TrEMBL record:
Protein name (record): Uncharacterized protein LOC117568374
Gene of this entry: LOC117568374
Pfam families: C1-set (PF07654), ig (PF00047)
Signal peptide, first to last residue: 1-20
Keywords per UniProt: Signal
Domain Ig-like per the UniProt entry, residue ranges: 35-129
Record carries keyword Signal: yes
InterPro entries assigned: Ig-like_dom, Ig-like_dom_sf, Ig-like_fold, Ig_C1-set, Immunoglobulin_dom
Gene3D superfamilies for the chain: Immunoglobulins
């Protein structure tokens, strides 16, 4: 399992009437990167301290304001039937009977697991609400290619990424800083929620030195990236510039028709 978890909790207390309502908010998003199908459970913890030792205690988890899981102290936890394949209800987060099944253990994550999560802890006299944000990055079936074409005294680079989530940003980088023009196509959303994108760059290559070109795929807020590299020694293809222009026109046409795949 390869994933990055970023988790920071800041506590604040709000007063509502006579009772005390504690609210904790994650300032940073928790990222879950899917690179293969061998995923362990992903745990969202509900960290709280109770002033009330009353027998009554419930913990409910929500995703985008829809109830996904609930636990009543003294009973077995239960995911909502609609989400039974998304939650491991056997996961014990603590030996403390007040927190035994308080965490949300996500299994079989998909892009639909992305969202705003909320843990609500209730006793007879207090309510604690903890907010979390989870962003899934799915690159399991990605295709990332960087091609190089020679057109007279110019070099054209084409980077394409297919079948990724969420919306990617493509950047082409030249070691010699000789990129003179960049044209972006996309990203375009497929019917299944995944994205495709293409970036074209024109490089003014006037020397015989070996040059390395890099295409970097980024996702907003995520500190790591995915990269492919091509060098001038890779054997550029010499093509008729009219074909390249036709390909660019076709890409633009498909984008306007919203059927880019």
């Amino acid at each position: 399992m390869k994933f990055l978890l970023v988790f920071v909790v800041v506590a604040s207390v709000l007063y509502n009437g006579v009772g005390c309502r504690a609210v904790r908010v994650d300032e940073e998003t928790k990222f879950l990167v899917l690179e293969d199908d061998n995923m362990d459970r992903t745990v969202l913890d509900c960290n709280y301290d109770l002033n009330d030792t009353d027998v009554f205690l419930t913990v409910k988890w929500f995703r985008n304001d829809r109830t996904i899981y609930q636990w009543i102290r003294g009973s077995q936890p239960a995911p909502i039937p609609e989400f039974k394949n998304d939650v491991d209800s056997t996961y014990e987060s603590s030996k403390d009977p007040n927190k035994q099944y308080s965490s949300l253990a996500l299994i079989n994550p998909t892009i639909s697991s992305t969202g705003d999560y909320k843990c609500v802890v209730q006793t007879r006299s207090e309510t604690i609400t903890i907010h979390k944000s989870l962003q899934v990055i799915d690159v399991r079936n990605r295709t990332l290619n960087l091609s190089r074409y020679k057109i007279q005294n110019e070099t054209q680079l084409e980077c394409t990424v297919l079948n990724v989530f969420p919306k990617p940003t493509l950047t082409i980088i030249s070691d010699d800083d000789d990129i003179i023009k960049v044209v972006n196509h996309g990203p375009y959303e497929q019917g299944d929620g995944y994205y495709n994108a293409t970036t074209l760059a024109v490089v003014q290559d006037n020397d015989d030195d070996a040059d390395a070109y890099k295409c970097v795929v980024n996702f907003e807020g995520y500190s790591q990236n995915f990269t492919t590299v091509i060098t001038s020694g890779s054997g550029p293809r010499y093509v008729d510039y009219r074909i390249v222009l036709l390909n660019t026109f076709v890409l633009s046409l498909l984008a306007n028709l919203n059927i880019f795949n």
